[in-house]
Amino acid sequence: MLHALVEKLSEYPRFFLFCRGLLESNFTVIRKAIRDHLGSSPDRKVLDVACGPGAFSDLFPKDAYTGVDLNPKYIRFAQENHQGQFSVQDARALEFPEGSFDDALVYGLLHHLSDEDVNAVLAGMQRVLRPGGRVLFIEDIPTESRLNLVGHLLHWAENGHYIRPANDYRTLLEPFFRLENEQLFRSGVCDYYMARVVADRNTEESSRTKSP
Ligand SMILES: C[S@@+](CC[C@H](N)C(=O)[O-])C[C@H]1O[C@@H](n2cnc3c(N)ncnc32)[C@H](O)[C@@H]1O
Question: CB-based contacts of 200: which residues, under 8 Å, 6+ apart?
Fold first, then answer.
């Protein structure tokens, strides 16, 4: 029942942002990680995959930022409250032409998706990024400290059915991207795996690596 309630309340963009901001100390650590690893240049086009209500669009120049999300309510909120281009899209079937972006951000998506769906997202991202493009992944890992009761409760209540240990995220990313930097960190009550990767593997190479 709590799961259903959390899911229902998450539908409201302002409520979603308020709760997450509270639990994650106003995203101070996350915003710094995004700034440090992706920078902000008008010359680099950025795709925010699963951008939610667009809370991180202000870290990028408005003409360089595109956010996509499956939830039309979040996209409508983002369009009304933030600058940049926003559209409803399924991250598993990105609709942009090949090589459209220099950089990408994926924050809090993969832990909602099965391995098969993650592979579809990563293959699509590899396609829409220019060779040499960078991606910053920030994903929930199991709560580390037994004393972090709110963190445990949050993971229990939210619908992240695929919260993985860092090694499992790495195993999913490696066939598609070259890993440049990895970190584990805490943001408020949430523990994260962060990876900055480069898209310099070609699609053929990736499908070869993934076949049994
Ligand atoms: C934990 S939220 C993170 C949102 C945003 N990155 C943020 O940090 O505010 C997960 C987001 O993934 C989106 N999502 C889930 N499955 C998706 C899919 N297949 N394609 C695009 N977005 C998806 C949800 O609608 C939700 O906005």
Answer: 131, 132, 178
Residue pLDDT, tens place only, 100-129: 999 999 999 999 999 999 999 999 999 999
The pLDDT, as a whole number, for residue 42 is 87
By C-alpha distance, which of 53, 50, 136 is closest to 91?
A: 50
Give the residues surrounding ligand 1 with Cβ less than 6 Å away.
50-52, 55, 69-71, 74, 90-92, 107-109, 112
Q: What CATH architecture is 2-210?
A: 3-Layer(aba) Sandwich (3.40)
Instruction: Please report which helix (H) or strand (E) contains residue 209, including its range.
Output: helix 203-210
Give me the chain's average pLDDT, please.
90
Residue 87 CA to ligand 1 centre (angstroms): 13
Q: How far apart are alpha carbons 43 and 65 in whole angstroms?
A: 11
Do the Cβ atoms of 133 and 103 come closer than 8 Å?
A: yes
Residue 207 pLDDT level (bands cut at 50, 70, 90): low
Return the domain boundaries, the chain: 2-210
Exposed / middle / buried, residue 162 (Cβ in 10 Å: 0-12, 13-18, 19+): middle
**Beta-strand runs (E) in 63-161:** 65-69, 85-88, 101-107, 129-140
